Amino acid sequence: MKRVVVGLSGGVDSSVAAYLLKEQGYDVVGLFMINWHDTTGTLSGDCPWYDDRMFAELVAKRLDIPLHVVDLSEAYRHRVVDYMFAEYEKGRTPNPDVLCNREIKFDVFLQEALKLGADYVATGHYCRKEEIAGPDGTTIYRLLAGSDPNKDQSYFLCQLSQEQLAKAMFPIGDLLKPEVRRIAEEQKLATAKRKDSQGICFVGKVDLPVFLQQKLKARTGDIIEIPAQWARYTQTAPTSDTADALEQLSQPWVYTPQDGTKVGEHNGAQFYTIGQRKGLNVGGKPEPLFVIATDVDRNILYVGQGQHHPGLYRRALHIRPEEMHWIRPDLQMVPGEKRRYSLRIRYRQPLQTGTLYATDAGGYLRFDTPQRGITAGQFASWYDGEELVGSGVIDR
Fold it and tell me: Model confidence over 82-136: pLDDT tens digits?
């Protein structure tokens, strides 16, 4: 009998995943991770990890499966949180959930599961895995979008490798969320009506500036409003796909204080991200202000009025060569090659059409329509149909 270690998180999705695996005849073992102890910046009312553990214990008891507990907080701080602080300090916006899956759930956690005799590890992600035969007869693992279009979480797994996928199982990937809730209620699982977790993976919902101020110092700076009629917005964008054209299109908008008007002050440019609306505390405008650029070196925030401000939109982005990751190494592109893909730059974003260009300088994603809020530090991913083929950290 194959043993599957399930990451029981105390949520309904992993609970139902464990139930389904047991019904399928696997030897199921639960493993609960403690990844974070510090409550600095955690918003009141958010359930800390010990509540999650209690629910995991209740589910394990109901399913009559053993539950082990492992403290991975040191690895989580080192591999995920320290990286977060370093990226924000540079004025970039990391995605801790993607990192958590690559570095913790399918690495450190996997190693702990193997100690328990696991043949596979399972999670409650809404995505699917498929096996196909490669040209040389080896097995190739495909990462597919979840069947529930409202809950597809394949994007969060965009940095996984073939070795990690080989050991992974996603039991609820073919289900819709209401079906998962229904199964949990039918089986009288304690998590049936529990709300889904929000915020930073394993940390919870936080006041981000307060959380980041553990390491990053607050300092007052200017908020500069850039008019929608700023001269550079009217310049004609290149239409060719030469290296120079792609480089030009992927450059973020760069402003100086002289390009706009001071409208307020902030407490640290590193605490803000492109497209952010909340936390600016500047009123009296016909339309809401959105962050369109940050300058952490000079500690300046640039903002624009309205969600359709041209400063929020760009046609292309760049990924450095070392950050290009292929879930399907057999499909890896070589410099000079271009390929049409469906593209995504954030979770829940509808897939966008565009072209991936492979060059000696890295990858360029050129979208058919300008994209709102392209943000350095986030992950861009590319899909062929329902299969997530690769991803990379947005450089600019």
Answer: 888 889 889 899 988 898 889 989 999 999 999 999 999 999 999 999 999 988 8
Domain-located, residue 241: no
Sign of CA dihedral 199, 342, 339, 387: positive
Model pLDDT, residue 231: 84
- Whether residue 111 contacts residue 167, with contact meaning beta carbons closer than 8 Å, is answered with no
Separation CA 225–CA 257 (nearest Å): 9
Split into its structural domains, the chain has a count of: 1
- Quick: pLDDT tens for 217-233: 889 999 999 999 998 99
Please give the Cα distance from 72 to 76 (Å, whole number): 6
**Residue 151, C-beta contacts closer than 8 angstroms, at least 6 positions apart:** 126, 176, 177
The answer to the question of residue 316 being in a domain is no
Query: Domain for residue 93, yes or no?
Result: yes
In a domain, 72, yes or no: yes
The range of the structural domain enclosing residue 133 comes to 3-207
CATH number at residue 163: 3.40.50.620
* Mean pLDDT of the residues in the chain: 91
DSSP structure string for 41-71: TBPTT---HHHHHHHHHHHHHHHT--EEEEE
Query: 314, 173, 313: which is closest to 248 by C-alpha?
Result: 314
| Dihedral sign computed on CA atoms, order 156, 36, 195, 122 | positive
User: Is position 158 annotated as part of the catalytic site?
Assistant: no
Nearest to 395 by CA among 326, 293, 338, 317: 317
201 is catalytic: yes
Q: What is the pTM of this model?
A: 0.91
Among 47, 127, 158, 201, the active-site one is 201
Q: Which residue, among 277, 234, 195, 135, has the nearest Cα to 9 in the 3D structure? A: 195
Secondary structure (3-state) at 77: helix
Please list the alpha-helical segments (H only) found in 65-172. Answer: 73-76, 82-89, 96-99, 109-115, 162-166
Query: Could you report the per-residue pLDDT of 236-256, keeping only the tens digit for each?
Result: 888 888 989 999 999 999 999
